[in-house]
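Give me structure tokens for this 126-residue protein.
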Amino acid sequence: MVSQIEMWYCGIMIIQIVENTISLEELREIAKEYYIDMVKGVVDISNEKVAFGGEYHMDANVKILENGSNQADVWGFNLYVNQPAGNRVEFTSLINIRPHVGNKSMEVQDEGIRTRMQDIIERKIS
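Here you go.
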């Protein structure tokens, strides 16, 4: 199955927007760009799209918004590529600070949103 992936080259930075799937090997290659074993990313929990890559979560955030996502639906995470499924997602990002919706820290506090994020992210990894 061929994945539908849009690649954005921002200077030397690669951001991949994934609507279908991406392989763990591809994610490991993205990780090498900045953090060796971790990829920053954002997930649109409404449209079920994920953007992987960039030095900061905001890099992927900008690209996913340019592709039709709404900020209210987009949450940031870190993905540790050498960890097993279920343990590789960390729900922490500056873009998650949203006091107006009750999220007062960098970590996603709503368990329902965390579960939705985890489910979408894990389904995108083939």
